Amino acid sequence: MSSAAADQEGAITCPYCGDNVPALVPIETGMRLRLQENAQVDSIPETVCDGCFKMMAKMVSKGAVLRAEQQAKEQNRLMLWRNRVQLVKQAKQHLAQKNYSDAAVSFEKYLRVLEIVYECKPGELSPDLFKNEARAQEMTVITSVYWDLMRIYDTHQTYRERQFKAAEKLAAFVRFTPIFPHIMRKAESQTRSAKNPDAFQKFLKLSNAKRPRCFIATAAFQGQRTMTVETLCSFRDQYLKTSAQGRRWVAVYYRFSPSVASFLDKHPRLKPATRKLLAWIANSRFVRNRLNT
Ligand SMILES: [Zn+2]
Question: Which of 57, 94, 208, 229 is 20–30 Å from 25 (CA)?
Answer without folding.
Answer: 229
